[in-house]
């Protein structure tokens, strides 16, 4: 029986590795154990926002899921109980639109004719259409969620909690019914919330036909000193000609100066700012005009009556007058606005204040049919007889044509502007008057702003930026929808306005004395709150002594955003159940969604949480960005610009996709431009996951060969080899860095922890050091044929760092770390995800250890500089050089570099000798530049003196990044780091500066001269490289012994192989090595042949 599992090591199909891991988790109930094994009293709560299940998951869902799963796994390993209950958003427009499509019905009238009961039954059955596929996607992305205990917004307990929350708002005086102008989707036949018009790209460019038309005054403006004028006309510009049939007033501004122009004895009145446009149009069309010399004050126009351009509202009281309003702006248009109170917020408020039209507000139906004569589909009613049953947007041309026929059209134009569209149907919205129920957000927005300051937003700028500003400008929230499939508003009203009464209910059964219950008043058992059953609950109006009026439910249902905003308590059926559980663990510890949810789910959560509980709904929130294609376009089936995520999982595995997303700036609100072919995911597999696997692979192969049972080192005092000390210290430092990224306050970012991207970077950097420094430098220790203590120490060291780094990496790479955990047999929990995060306290670092880390980082830095010089100067890495000279700056640690580190450095850079010098000026010179803009702010009168001192080279570098210009005994100035720039010019083409942690340590210079001895050693090293590559290309096992034959006519090469014979056979596991000038091919059939292209030399190898 082997100590370590190498079953998975041989394959490079990481998708297959992951599938085996998924099966292991499923077979052993690892997810369930990870939750149940933690203390119930030590919970970490996160909210899983409910998606719609009537479509397949996309990359945005996967990104959100990766973040949720990573944080949940991390906190589980930190010792918390993390329930991960999945939820489904079942109600609302997405479900209804799909049902309409599948049933072949369109619009509310058609649905009512089809039958609300049948329609809602279809919604119920189709809304979970893709739930199985969702589970497959979520499971395959290695995400753990509880599907068995999921919640659905259409379930009775959830809906009852939504009812309760509305009742509480009603009791607090935070709910009211009102007629207001709302964004309306005629395609969906429902109003939208104001924040829904700010979702994603709801605003898009739209070309509208505009018209400037003349309204004829019935009265002469006051104080106008002009004669022979036959009529006075007001010029009005509008981008919505379709609203002109509903015009009831005009508006002017007290802050605008008006003027007049006379054409054919008719005076046209408009703002002075419009005069240039007026003149330009007249000249272009050969219209003779004269400009009235005087000013026209707004007061001379106020309350004047005018002749309506359409006669649909003639006879309506208190209409067709000029009103004064502050919202009329000078700039675009004529400075005079046409007012249609049914189609504009400012228009509605102005007319309501002026009593236009003169209709009692209580007669809601009559008022709405008067000011907003369109049906649910956006078509004019018979009130507008010329355009009845025409969609409002289709009437513009005919309206303009009619205006021209009446000689009222002054000019028309095309106008390109940003216009809100329905987020579901991409159709332009209508702003129209409707009666809706509102949450009075404006009453609580100050409290919301205070609570927002307590939330840890990632990125930090969201707090005062996107979310903070949204709250600051919050409007009351329209929460009712005149639709069918949703939680019904629990409001019953008297059907006789003479006996008004409103009943609001907060529960089904009588549970609480202070909460009104449906079953108590209607004396019926209720097991479904949906329409049409709930609509059938009718009872006599208790306030009507005649007994004739009835209490009937308002037909509206809740905005589905209200339901998802109720999720924290409704998923638990609070307050009817789980009261203690909710109250003890609210608000949530963590939440994440994409950044637009600052105006969606995050916002609705915040409104309801503030209103109901006077608390924020969550403590920490990651607002991630959007996944787009490489052109920055939204991923869509129509554009065919993305691959099925399942195909990517099959090709590269989910860990690669996870790590790509977690390590990207998309986690901080940026955009991830994902290529369709998965090249970016493949690169993560190559550059991140394979190096991790290779380190595991290296250990298991050699440990199995040597039959070594490694152990986890418990104290740094047990470690003697400096390479071992370094990698353990580096590992502990990495673990601590990940802890800090996930948990510590970041002053620069302005937030606390949850810096997943930084944690991922730490993992990558560590494995770069582990593979390309420690393992590569220590290979000879593992290759040694004898089981020495040094070899055992190397095994124990590698085993130890794998133990620590695999544990701390598990939340970020759950599948691959699980496979490695199983293979390394750490004799702990059966799954890495059941273990706790590594305790680094038992491996404490002394000052000497930290010094050793700095020394190792220093030589790694120097190695990097030398390799760069070799690369630029085309000097092979395997070519030994004679000497490196290091010129030390300011007597730093380089002068005290211990001999063992010097030896590592020389061996790594393939150089024979190292020389230290303290006179850096022998090889380099400093060049000083002054930042005159900064110095000019501080000491403007001394700038000339500074220039003189600079020219005389009178300066000295001080500590703390300061510089003295001048001489200490005489005139001098102390400059801070932002007031100067110091550069070092190296006077050797084989030289480089040595900089560590942004501090200059010195300059190195490489001696590139070659002797015959150095050349021959270089050839020997190249021969080793060729042999090793041949072994790999021909799939030899690492432990395979070989015979080598070298054929070459190159005398120097022959001599080199003879001199370095022992080195070559030792490095290549060769039992024999023969060099021949001419080779007889007899007996060479079993050999593999490889040629050295840069030398006339051919290598033949044979497995023994």
TrEMBL record:
EC number(s) from the headed UniProt entry: 6.1.1.5
Leading EC class: ligase
GO cellular component, one term: cytoplasm
The Methionyl/Valyl/Leucyl/Isoleucyl-tRNA synthetase anticodon-binding domain, residue ranges: 754-883
An MF annotation (GO) of this entry: aminoacyl-tRNA deacylase activity
Motif ('KMSKS' region): 634-638
Subcellular location: Cytoplasm
PANTHER family hit by this protein: ISOLEUCINE--TRNA LIGASE, CYTOPLASMIC, SOLEUCYL-TRNA SYNTHETASE
Quaternary structure annotation from Swiss-Prot or TrEMBL: Monomer.
Job of this protein: Catalyzes the attachment of isoleucine to tRNA(Ile). As IleRS can inadvertently accommodate and process structurally similar amino acids such as valine, to avoid such errors it has two additional distinct tRNA(Ile)-dependent editing activities. One activity is designated as 'pretransfer' editing and involves the hydrolysis of activated Val-AMP. The other activity is designated 'posttransfer' editing and involves deacylation of mischarged Val-tRNA(Ile).
Written domain comment of the UniProt record: IleRS has two distinct active sites: one for aminoacylation and one for editing. The misactivated valine is translocated from the active site to the editing site, which sterically excludes the correctly activated isoleucine. The single editing site contains two valyl binding pockets, one specific for each substrate (Val-AMP or Val-tRNA(Ile)).
Name of protein: Isoleucine--tRNA ligase
